[in-house]
Amino acid sequence: MREQQPHTPLRVVVLGAAGFLGSSMTRFLAAQGHDVVAYWRQPRPEIAQLPGVASVLGDIRDTWILSDAIKGADIIYHFASATYPSRFFSEPAAEYTEALSPLLVLMETAAYHGVRKIVFPSSGGTVYADTDQPRHEDSATDPRSPYAIFKLAAEQLLRHATRRGLFATDIFRIGNPYGPGQRTRPGQGVLPHWIEALHHGTPIRVYGDGSASRDYIYIEDVCRLMAISCDRLDESNVFNLGTGVATSLEELVGTIRRLLDKEIEVVHLPHRSSDITSISLDPQRLLTLVPNYQFIPMEEGIRRTLQHHRLLSV
Predict the structure, then answer these.
(1) 11-180+216-244+276-295: which CATH topology?
(2) For labeling, which of 52, 53, 117, 284 is most exposed (least CB within 10 Å)?
(3) pLDDT digits over 240-297, tens only?
């Protein structure tokens, strides 16, 4: 589906455009008519060839290449990161060298070039304290990994820069995004791992007894709602980006089983101490900007994802 084009196309730089969130956002913004610079270490030809997309090959730590790429940009979506929740549990210093330090350089460079806004994807699934109540943006935080600690530190650095008048910032605390294009990667999302297992006819793995719940949000909803930042270049805020509904791993398995209409073998592994038991994100602050917004239902999102991976006929 082609998106309605905006009245004023912007020059948008998407850092980390080859990843799940970055590639999806690049497609979406280009479809809206923006001029998008896809900044990546490994280009994806199917995205680079889209109308309105310019490709820049570089690492987030390549200062001169980065500076040239963001010159003249109105807004930057910063998805570039080599980190994920479980990777650096025993290597917290890596969070600084691979994520926090490059962010500081990006902020300085963006301010120098007069970029009006930086959009940052934080982690609604890891930064909050563990409770069965829906989290709102002012809820207590309790990061349990270097990854989550970095996300909160990055939020504070960006908000500090905004208070100094360097640029505006939108921070999105995203739940558990899923959908077509999500690749199998350690520590990020159960669905691609389960889909890979289904393709190979092997059991899917569930940590704990299956009662752990997450706020799953379909990638199209993520892109639509994060694109709101392009319409408010000089305003700043922190937003939860989730549906407000917690779905357990057991329920997720049940949805896949029902859609595929077959039995699925499940192997239960010990619960991981870093995992939050339950998380749901109250999205009302964000939804005040888009009244009557309707999220794609979980079953429909899973159906589209299974169809994309040819596990279910269209």
Answers:
(1) Rossmann fold (3.40.50)
(2) 284
(3) 999 999 999 999 999 999 999 999 999 999 887 767 788 999 999 999 999 999 999 9
- Measured in degrees and rounded to the nearest 5, phi and psi for residue 290 equal -135, 75
Q: What letters, b where the CB count within 10 A reaches 16 and e where it falls short, cover 173-182?
A: bbbbbbbbbb
* Residue 110 tokens, joined: 């963006």
pTM for the full model? 0.93
Give 14's contacts (C-beta < 8 A, 6+ positions apart).
22, 25, 26, 29, 36, 37, 38, 39, 76, 77, 79
Closest C-alpha among 239, 197, 195 to residue 221: 239
Q: Are 181 and 46 in contact (CB under 8 A)?
A: no
Kindly list the domain boundaries of the chain, sorted by start residue. 11-180+216-244+276-295
Return the amino acid letter for 164: R
